[in-house]
Structures are given as C-alpha cells and as structure tokens.
Amino acid sequence: MDACVVLCIIRPWMNHVLKFQFLQLKWLVDGRTFASSIVCPNFSCVFFTVLLIILLFCVFFRLVTLFMDELGHISHWRAIMAGSLAGMVATVVTYPTDVIKTRLIVQNRLEPSYEGIVHAFYKIYHQEGLRALYRGVSPAILGAIPFSAGSFFVYISLDKIWQEPIVRFTPLQNFINGCVAAGVAQTLSFPFETVKRKMQAQSPWLPHYGGVDVHFTGMADCFRQTVKNKGVLGLWNGLTPSLLKIVPYFGVMFSTFEFCKRVCLYRNGYIESPLNYKLTPGVDQSLHPQELRELKLLRRENFEPRKSALEN
Hints:
Elements: H1 3-10, H2 22-25, H3 36-39, H4 43-67, H5 76-106, H6 117-128, H7 137-142, H8 144-162, H9 171-201, H10 219-230, H11 239-267, H12 289-311
Helix pairs in contact: 1-5, 4-5, 5-6, 5-8, 8-9, 9-11
C-alpha cells in the first residue's frame, strides 16, 4: 500500500488530529472570536478520530479484496479508489460526530448552547431533526473526488519530476512528496471543505446563526452566496492555516510510512538494508512473506543434513 493510498484513506479525519481547532474555524465567524474556540479543548474530535480510524481500515481492506484481480494484485488507481470509497463510507457513518464537533467549537462559551457531546446530539436531533446531523455531508463526499484526483496526479508525476523510480526515493524526497501531494490535494478540495463547515455551523438555534458570514438554503446556494459576497477566492478562505497544519503533517507521515515499509521489507528479506532499496540477491520478489519464510526454512533444513554428512 503506497503513501498516496494512505492519504486518500485518512483524508476524512486529517482535520481532526489537533486538540484545538481555532485556526480551522476562525474564518467562519463574522468578526467574532468565540471563547470556546480558544479555551475549550475539543474532546469530540478524539472520539470522532478513533471511531473513524477503526471503520476506515475495516472498510478499506474489505474493498481491496473486491478490486483485486485473479492473481490477488491491485493497481495503484484501484487502490486509491478503494481508499476513497472507504473514506466516503466512514464519513457518512460517523458524520454526526463531525457536526457536533463543529457546533461545540462555534458556540458562545459565555452562553453555551450545548453542554457536551451527548447533550449536543440530543438537542440537535430534537430541535432540528435527523437531517441536521448530516448537514454538509454532500460537499464532504464530493470533496473526495478532487482530493483523490489531485493526490493521484501528484503520485504518477513523481518519477518524472525526480527522474528516477519511486522505490529509490530518499527520506527527504518522500517528505517533499508528502508535502506536495497534501498541498495540491487540499487546495483542490478546499472549497468543498469551506461549504461543509458553513453548512455544519449554520443553525437558527445558535446565536448569529452559528456565526456564519453568509446565509443559504443548501450546498449550491452556499457556493453561490459565498462567491457573491466574498468572491471566488472566498471559497479558499482559511486555506493558509490549513496548509500550515496539513502539509508538514503529511510530509512527516509519508517519509515515516515509506521508511517503515522498507524496514518491513528488510526484516522479511526482500532488500539488503532499510536505508536503500537494493534487492537481496537470489530472492524471488514475487513471493509473499510467508512463502519466503517457508522457503528459507526448507533451504535450512536441506542444508543442515548436508553439513552434518560432510562433518562425519
């Protein structure tokens, strides 16, 4: 599994990995900074992240088996598709917790509308109905399309940019690749993220309609009102702090992921060292790790009787 695939898998929860969410939602309010955005740690993001990680990988590995060919192989494009679909399914299932997280952030801390996760869920459901818990899910799902396309475009262009095979990239190159892939993918999908957050935050039951700077009736109207009042670039408001958080995060993640993958290949005997990608001589690279271990064990068993016979 390549780092590009991992990027598509973990995209739905990458905005929830930080304890405080002030920078992410600062651009939602119209000249007002709510106290809860600064001093109240968003514990719901921890709950959301744990739930989503478990569900994501369960769905992903199930989808991978559906995209495999008769030999059990899967192409990069199919793997990215499986990761994107897994992210969509997990996003839909756990989306209410994302809405609750946003509401807890934008509420006025001096006069809080919600007392916690359970109270927020109960109050939103009884005041606004079940649909309110899924407000903004459409742009969340549609945003996966440009995100996956952007990450895949960067991935297939890496060998042309560096003029060498991907498997020979150094940790520094992998770090740069992660930064570039995350930056391009996040920039392409950010308008959907903007609309999603606005739709989540807007509520007639919150002061100032949740602090949203434009009022709308749906996803298309939110796009239209944002462009009308803020211009086209208004869809990318808040992109800079988002990139400052996401780009180095995925740079470190990509380089660490690739290094750990090389360590696993080295421990299984496919390469000579985790510091380079030089293949181990005499090793069939098409064998699975279990098959390779069984082959080594068989060779050892055949070698020991010959050694004993020579000694005798």
